[in-house]
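ok new one. same drill as before - structure tokens go in, u give me an amino acid for every spot. 457 of them this time. try not to just spam alanines like last time pls lmao
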């Protein structure tokens, strides 16, 4: 490089001929012409040196490399292992460095060391988002638990939404979308995914996937397109934005481990952290995430009139302890429902138990399998009437309902209100005794059944 510089300088300052420059600098005239054309010397082309020691073994090396293409990448030959096998199995007398050079050349020719080229992607506002789940620990109610973090990141601005769930199940996946779309105020045109079982029932040829029906319903409801990345490590690079976001958010907002009382409280913190992140700058950009997100949000597709129902409705049975079992955890319901079958709505973060369309119990989903989430009020329903009614009225109502042969807490509440309002009780002891005169055994209907069957005339 320095010699080329001196040749060019002498030509420029003294105007020497090519022959004179070659004589002065002791080089061939061809080198002078090269220096005058370009300041950078051309790369040296070395003539290949024969390797008689390796020659008899090149076919074996290429065969091993070809066979490697059919095995797991972590169990393929290294250059050193090839050299060791040549010494052990074929008695070769060759240097390891010679084998290394040949293996590198052979791999390039066989394309076994091919590397995918990463192209910088430019995303238009509202054009695309990426979705992924990550793992994180938190201390909830004094216990350390492992959670699944839903991440949805807009590719143009980098604005992201994060929601924590007890597990990476289908309800959490769909609910995360619903929450993210509502916070962003719209829907991106396309979303990139990996091949999670919650979405993909079967991987087909190329990019084709057999998708789950619930995912198709979600996509149809919001009107976005889906794109599935290649399986394995190659696919991770196809949604590198959200892959990096998972680690960045965890390091920034979940170190040290957050200590909260409930999953709901943790998600409130995560939502606040998302708002804080609007002020950060992505590397290489002058604008903040929030400033870039203005264009992103304005280009999103509008939300549908109603959100997608991400919850799953399943029948459950209330046991003798007034509990229902959902996903291997127990949740209490009011004691009056013991022994009954009720429908339960399983959401990503909440469990609701219904009776005739009315929610009778609601809980945060447990983050520990086999645990019990109990609400004392469910077991003290009658006694809690004293919060809104006088104790004397509640006590009198208990006596009246018990005397009538019932323990229905609903009837106790009605009677207590009647007494508190001065409207009397269900009935006096004399009235109840009078009504008992009409009590009797159930009528026999066998004769009527015979008439219906045509056996009695």
């Amino acid at each position: 490089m320095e010699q080329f510089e001196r040749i060019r300088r002498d030509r420029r300052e003294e105007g020497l001929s090519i022959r004179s420059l070659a004589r002065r600098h002791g080089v061939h005239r061809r080198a002078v012409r090269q220096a005058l054309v370009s300041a950078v010397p051309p790369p040296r082309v070395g003539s290949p040196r024969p390797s008689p020691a390796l020659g008899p073994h090149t076919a074996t090396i290429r065969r091993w490399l070809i066979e490697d293409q059919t095995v797991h990448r972590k169990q393929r030959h290294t250059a050193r292992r090839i050299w060791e096998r040549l010494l052990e199995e074929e008695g070769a007398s060759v240097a390891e460095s010679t084998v290394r050079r040949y293996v590198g050349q052979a791999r390039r020719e066989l394309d076994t060391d091919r590397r995918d080229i990463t192209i910088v992607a430019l995303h238009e506002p509202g054009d695309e988002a990426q979705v992924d789940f990550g793992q994180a620990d938190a201390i909830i109610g004094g216990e350390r638990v492992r959670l699944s973090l839903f991440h949805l990141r807009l590719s143009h601005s980098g604005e992201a939404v994060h929601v924590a769930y007890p597990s990476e199940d289908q309800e959490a996946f769909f609910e995360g979308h619903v929450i993210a779309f509502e916070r962003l105020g719209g829907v991106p045109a396309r979303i990139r995914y990996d091949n999670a079982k919650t979405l993909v029932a079967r991987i087909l040829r190329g990019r084709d996937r057999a998708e789950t029906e619930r995912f198709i319903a979600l996509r149809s409801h919001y009107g976005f397109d889906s794109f599935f990345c290649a399986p394995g490590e190659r696919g991770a690079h196809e949604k590198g934005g959200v892959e990096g976001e998972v680690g960045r958010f965890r390091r920034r907002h979940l170190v040290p481990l957050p200590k909260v009382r409930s999953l709901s409280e943790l998600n409130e913190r995560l939502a606040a952290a998302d708002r804080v992140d609007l002020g950060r700058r992505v590397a290489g950009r002058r604008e903040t995430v929030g400033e870039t997100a203005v264009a992103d949000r304005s280009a999103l597709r509008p939300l549908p009139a109603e959100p997608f129902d991400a919850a799953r409705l399943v029948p459950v049975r209330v046991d003798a302890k007034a509990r229902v079992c959902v996903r291997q955890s127990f949740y209490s319901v009011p004691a009056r429902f013991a022994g009954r079958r009720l429908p339960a709505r399983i959401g990503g973060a909440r469990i609701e138990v219904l009776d005739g369309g009315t929610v009778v119990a609601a809980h945060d989903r447990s983050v520990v399998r086999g645990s019990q989430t109990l609400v004392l009020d469910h077991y003290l329903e009658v006694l809690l009437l004293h919060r809104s009614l006088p104790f004397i009225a509640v006590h009198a109502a208990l006596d009246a309902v018990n005397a009538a042969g019932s323990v229905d807490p609903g009837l106790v509440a009605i009677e207590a209100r009647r007494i508190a309002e001065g409207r009397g009780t269900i009935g006096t002891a004399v009235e109840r005794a009078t009504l008992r005169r009409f009590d009797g055994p159930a009528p026999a209907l066998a004769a009527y059944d015979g008439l219906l069957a045509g056996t009695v005339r």
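The chain has a mean pLDDT of 80. and btw The CA atoms of residues 68 and 125 lie 44 Å apart.
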